[in-house]
Records
---
Amino acid sequence: MSLSGYLSVLADSDLFGLLAIYCLAVAITGLFEKPRNTLTYRALAFCGLLVVPVLHAIGTYFLNQAPA
């Protein structure tokens, strides 16, 4: 299986549903001041925000490849 085939299967899986649940959990946790001020929360929020542009960049790269 090629990398582009793997990524297309991954995109059709529950990846985006899990990402939505993850971001919802981070957002709800952010409503409370005590956990919001921790380094762990900030790292989790940063990772959640970083996933979407990374997936976009990977998808754009593979969409711009010449067909084999």
Note: The chain has one domain: 3-63.
---
Amino acid sequence: MTRRRFQWIVCVLAVFFVMPWPAAAKKVDDVETASRLIQAFGGKAQPELMTNALRSVSKTQLSRYKRAVTLEKPLDVRVLGDRYVSAAFFTRVKKAGSARAKAEPAIYILLFHKKTEGGLDHKMQHLMILGKAGDISAYETMADAELATRFRKAGADVKVAAAPKPKSTKPKPAAVLSGSSIGQGVVGESFIDDSITRDSELLQLLSGYARKEDIPKVMPVMKTGAGSPELQLRVAELEARVKALESLLTNITRKGGNIYFNGVNLYVTNGTGKADKVNGKGNVVIGYGSTGTGSHNLVVGAANHYEGVGNVVSGRGNSVSGDCGAVLGGEKNKASGDFSVIAGGKGNTAPGSYASILGGTKNTAKGEYTSINGQRGRTKGGKNPHFTSEKTSE
């Protein structure tokens, strides 16, 4: 984990440790809200606490379990009861020392104890790791009570009161009273239907209201709550997203119909993590009509075909199907051998590994390390160590 990413994570979480906490978890969706949150809620951050905790986690996982942990971003911070605070991170974990090991997603949750005099204990109390796909996807909607239960099963005394059940608002059945059931006396007001009223009472009530034509038109006024922390937080989130998008375009400029990448390298990969694994992605294709199933190939021209990995094919109607080969220009040339090259010409084929053909037409380099230079209808390779001439006509 780079020092810059480490400081970024610490800065964001330090802000949340000094905020006035609601009951629900506080999500951390972006990075640049730190300074805005400090302005909105005040307080003093404690970067040393998270710095030491995160370094301890990374060091312990590497030395004790041989895990290389990359902390990508914080997810949320929760207040668990009166005594504990948890901080969750989305991470990538891979086996240390293995270049081929694939980094798997996981959620690391750090548990801290709240001191009675304020703040958090600098010693982390517990570490929970969610590595199963189901646990990772369920964490976003996981209730605090369920998270506390998992910590208790792991040995931490975390208690969170369950959410109270809402009281039933089912109305009591109203007493039914009809005119036939009234013999004499006075009927109580509670038994009179609300839809019934005396004419005199109705007229008196209506006299207190203005007529529609007497009411002036008034534009509605919306309460903005401009000074509320919630609105400031929302504004901070939106500003951070805009700033993040602008930072992506820092090294990109456009002049008319041209786009320039300035001071950066352009990487194109197929997403598998391996240079020699084929999935049809990770190619750079310039032109129209080219097709293929390979990966990490450079394709320039029209109607070319590419398979394998690490090839370069240009021209028209050319094809590469081995690995790390090339067809440079020309038309209808086919390089199927690994590490084979055809430069120009028409209708040449190079099925042999490490073979090469320079120009000409209808030449075939069959054997390994064979080479044909500017010929017509020549075949070299196989068991015949010499050229064999075949007269051909176009």
Note: Confidence is low (pLDDT under 50) at residues 15-24, 28-45, 218-225, 386-394.
